[in-house]
Each structure stands twice: as structure tokens, then as C-alpha cells.
Amino acid sequence: MAKKDLFHKLSYTEQLEEILEKKTFSADCKNLLLSMLYKIDTSYNDYETVKRMVDPKRQVIEDILNIIKDCNEIKLISSAKMEQFKKKNIRFKVDQQKKKIETEQNENAMLNALYNLPIEKKVYLDEEHSAIRNSLPFILEKGKSINRAEIIRDFDAWSWNTTFSEIPNIEANLIYQNLQMLLGKEFLEEWMKLENTKNSLEMLNNKLNEILERKESEEFLFLIFKLSIIICSENDTKEKKRLKEEFIWNAKELKRLNDTVKLVKESSSIKAKAIQEIEKIDKTLNDKKLFEKELKRINAKETDFRILTPDDLEVRLNRQRKKLENRIKEANNMLYVKQYMAVKAKIMKENDLLKTIEETEKKEEYILKIQKYFIKGITSKILLEENKKQIIDLMYILRYYEFLPYFGEKYINDIEELKQIINKTEDILINKLMEFKIVNKLSGDKEFDKSIIKRIFRIRMINLENINIEFVNNNEVIFYDVETIEKKFEIENEGIKLKYNKKIKLFD
User: Percent of the chain having pLDDT more than 70?
Assistant: First the structure.
């Protein structure tokens, strides 16, 4: 049997021990790594049930084992150094080049450090998207890192809880989860790996257009771009400086474009000079004597060791001609209203993004608007879905979304401005659950049943399909996880016949 096949047949603890035999990590470090993998192993099923959008367990563990295998050094920081880390508000340090880690002595910090060790391909945006070229990748990569650590941060093999202090960036996590839920896990991850693709943002927009109107998807993304600029600027002073310089340059360019009289003169002058230069090049290319004279002139001045040949000169002149043609095209764009307006609109839109660096106080406003578009999108997905299994998945996904952390240590379902539209989305989803007979009837009144079923979005119970319901009286209903009391709710029942003191299975 090949060594690789044998390796895959070992348990994860045996695989880790085999890797650690060749490492000089301390005993405490090795024990922490074992404890971390044990938590992942025991928490995975709950994590998968609650979240739905996850990698297979084997892949999660193998990815981590491969990172450990490639790591040269892991140091657990001393209590003295812990104070330095706290002052800097960090939990770990990673040297990607030397493949070294320094981390606090807890499983969550260790997992985050390991995920940050490999030098992964960064999200790529070309120069055309200068305003968000660094900020959008920053927020997505930060969100991805937070997302991957969730398995042991929020799950402990018995329950699902959220510790706000363990999430380094609430906004980045929320945006990443929004996009993952709307676009799909696979699409988002593949899109983030795209390289040298000029149309990458258009691809993102087109995918969103499957569930949102074009104007809505554009506004949704534009708000994400603005938020990413704010967050990146708060964390990266160099990027903030670069964006400010871009803003100043754009402001000058807009001023130049707004002076149409001067612009026409300027463009006409550029065009006239370029035409003259092209005529001169054409004359040289078509006149043998002029061509030879130019060749001698350049070779007399050429400082390069290699003397120009006639072929080299022809290539050089044709390149110069092409550049001049592009200059004429740019000048023409400024003379034609349609092209001029397009150039101006692009700069104005970019400036609208760039000025966001001074709008940090609008961060919560942007997040709130993004959530409203997200809820429209998830509602659209629910309305379009006709597959029973996918409807159940959407039920879990909506419940997961409502428990996402928000500002001020609140959850999404605590936000007053969102409650009304979330309530409508819950109604639409419950109608689907009823239509496909996924949930059982609780009474003869559909609206009353919906009001009871809606409580599932307020429960952190791992497996919702285990729910049993018991009406104790006209004012109270108990939700059980099979036999264990999960939560009690007050209800209002006016004359609806119910079965009291008897457990009813909610899901068929």
C-alpha cells in the first residue's frame, strides 16, 4: 500500500502525531494542536447542521494537517508577552516567509494563525478598479479568515454560541456571510481565486442579477465597495494615503473636464500634434532614403550595446504610431459628447467611492442598507426555490443569518430597522414549508400556525427538525429538542382549538 493511501487511512490524531514526530514544537504546543483538532472533529456535525454552507469534514481536517506539516515553528506566547499582544489587540503573529507562528495558548487563536500561514492567491482586481483594488480584497480575505475559524469559535460539540469579542471584524464577517449566502459558497470561493480578469466585477454583478434587479445588485455592491474602503482605511494607513491621493487627482481631472472650452482646445491641440507625428512616421516608413537617414541618426545616439537593424526601427516606429493613434482616440473621446460623458461619469463614480475615506461615521448606515438588499435577495431565493431539501436548507440559512453578530453586541434579529422586512421573509419561507408539507399542522388556523412556527428563528437549537411542541395553556407553548425543554414562549390564543399537554412533532 502506498504511503499516501496509508496516511489517509489513519485517524486524524494518528496523522497529526506522525507529522509532529518530525517537528520540534513544545509539548504544550503539540497538546494544543491535538485539542484544536479534537474540537473540530466533535463540533463539525453541529456546525454543518446549523450553517449548511461548509466544506466536507475530511477536507477541513486535511487542509489543517497540511498547513501544520508545512509549518516550521510554532511558539506559544508567555504571560509576559501576552500583555504586548493585548496592547496591539492581536491574538497571534504569523511570518509567512519563514513559516513561523506565535500565538496565544487557545484553540481559536491557533486555528486562526494556521489559516493565516499559507501565502494564498489574493483576490485580484485590475487598475480599472483603482478605488477598491486593495480594499475589497482586504474585506473579503478578512471575512474568509473569520468564517473558517467559526467551527471552534462558536461551536463546542454541545451548543452553538457567539462570542463577540472573538470576532476581529464584525463588518467583514457580515459582508462575507452576506455574499456567501446569496452567491453560494462555491461561486464566491472560485470568484476570489480569479486572476487577471477585467470582467470579474461584472461576473459578480451578473450572478447577483439572478436574484436581484440590476439596479439593486449594483447598489448592493456599491455599498459593499464603500464599506470596504472605510474598513481598509481604518486598518491600513498606506492605503488610506493612496486613496486620498487618488481623490485629489480625480478632483483635478474633474475640474479639467468641467472646463469644456479649455478641454476642446487642449484635445484639438493634442490631436493635431499626434496627426503631425503620424504623418512624419508614415513618410519615414514609406521613403527609403528618409528611413535610412533615421536609422543612422538613431544608431549614432543609441547608447544600447545592440545596434538597431532596419527591422528593429520599423517595429519601433509602428509602436510609436500605435501610441499616437491611442492619443488621438482619447482626444476624440473628449470631443464627442457620449464618450466625454462616459469618461466623466466614471471619474465621478470613482470619486463617490473615494470620498468614503472621510465617511467613517456612516459605517453603520451602509451596513444597514446592505442588509436590506441582502434580505431582498434571500427572499427572492426563497420564492424561486421548488426543491424540498433546498427549502429546508434556506430555513437553516435564514435562522443562521438572524443570529449573525451586529454592532453593539446585537444580533441581526435585534435590529429594529430590519425586524419588519425579516418578518415578511419568515412568512414567505413558512408558506413554502407548509406548501411542501415540510411542517405539520398544529391547529386549524394557518395564521396561528405560522405565528408558532416563526419561533424557530429565535432558537439556537442545533437540529430544528428535532423540534416537538407542547401547548401548555392558551398563553404558553414549549419547544422541545426531542424531550429536552429548549425554550418557552408566550402566545395569544383566542378561541383556536389546540391539543394541550401533548407533544406534537413540528417537522414531518
Answer: 92
How many CA atoms within 13 Å lie on the side-chain side of 384? 10
Query: Which of 142-146, 148-152, 262-266, 278-282 has the lowest average pLDDT?
Result: 262-266
Is residue 15 within 8 Å of 65, Cβ to Cβ?
yes
Show Cβ contacts of residue 48 under 8 Å, excluding neighbours closer than 6 positions.
54, 57
- Residue 351 grid cell: 470619486
Q: What is the DSSP string of 396-456?
A: HHHHHHHTSEEGGGEEGGG-HHHHHHHHHHHHHHHHHHHHTT-B---SS-HHHHHHHHGGG
Q: Could you please report the per-residue DSSP string of 66-133?
A: HHHHH--EEEEPPHHHHHHHHHTT-SEEEETTTTEEEE-SSHHHHHHHHHHSS-PPPP---GGGGGGT
List the one residue out of 218, 196, 198, 197 whose CA is nearest residue 207: 218
Nearest by Cα to 227 from 323, 147, 105, 139: 139
Beta-strand pair 410-411/405-406: antiparallel
Question: How far is Cα 404 from Cα 147, in angstroms, rounded to an integer?
Answer: 11
**d(Cα 83, Cα 240) in Å, to the nearest integer?**
29
Contacts of 133 (CB under 8 A, 6+ apart): 125, 126, 127
- Find the helix or strand (DSSP H, E) in which 148 lies: helix 135-148
- The per-residue pLDDT for 166 is 85
Structure confidence at residue 5 (pLDDT): 47
**Could you give the strand order of the β-sheet that contains 92-95, starting from the edge strand earlier in sequence?**
73-76, 100-103, 92-95
d(CA 142, CA 102): 19
Residue 501 — left, alpha, or beta (φ > 0 → left; ψ -120 to 50 → alpha)?
left
**pLDDT tens digits, 226-276:** 999 999 998 889 989 988 888 888 888 777 777 676 767 777 788 888 888
* Mean pLDDT calculated for residue range 498-506: 93
Closest listed residue to residue 397, CA positions, set 417, 375, 414: 375
| pLDDT in the model for residue 7 | 46
Residue 165 · residue 171 · CB < 8 Å: no
> What does the block give as the cell for 121?
492567491
Are the C-beta atoms of residues 412 and 426 closer than 8 Å to each other?
no
- Range in 31-45, 192-206, 274-288 with the lowest mean pLDDT: 192-206
Q: For the chain, what is the radius of gyration of the CA atoms?
A: 30
Q: Quick check: helix, strand or coil at residue 193?
A: coil
Contacts of 25 (CB under 8 A, 6+ apart): 33, 73, 74
Give the residue extent of every domain in the chain: 3-116, 255-352, 385-505
CA gap 333, 254 in Å, rounded:
15
CA distance 140 to 137: 5
